[in-house]
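Journal club prep, notes for RB
We'll compare a predicted complex against what the paper describes. Inputs for the heme C case:
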Amino acid sequence: MLKISVIISALLVLQVALWAGQAQEAPKTPPAEEYKIPPEAANQPNPVKPTAESLAKGKKIYGYDCAMCHGESGDGKGDVEMKGMPDFTNPATLKNRTDGELFYIIRKGKGEMPPEGDRAKPEDLWNLVNYIRSFAKK
Ligand code: HEC
């Protein structure tokens, strides 16, 4: 009888240990190097041309939702100081990103950056993509 209860309590301890291990595994925000964008999202073409109208719409939303972190001019020096802030005025920053990737990042968020989610219509997310690309062209 004693043996059985020892085995049972040993199993219980093991189970709790396993459970605790699992609970520790999933971090809330994955580290930047593990950030994965599905290829079908990355390859999605931008359906919105960077016309003056698109840029004006993008600028408006940017002013409300992005400028406090990314800075009015896109240089990453907004009121909210954060680590790893990209500088959109440097042409190298977004050079290797497709429009589809930028769309995905803005919609889903990245690292410390909150997702725009469904606050903006897809067309406005593309306007934002066009607008942040325009910082490096000035
Ligand atoms: C709370 C501050 C904050 C807000 C608001 C914010 N961002 Fe960000 N953004 C960040 C930070 C921090 C990073 C760097 C994230 C990382 O790489 O881990 C980032 C990264 C990005 C990137 C990725 C650059 C790259 O190539 O990896 C894009 C694009 C971007 N932001 C666009 C936007 C747009 C557009 C908005 C507004 C809709 C916005 N962000 C709102 C903080 C913010």
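Talking point for the session: The chain has a mean pLDDT of 88.
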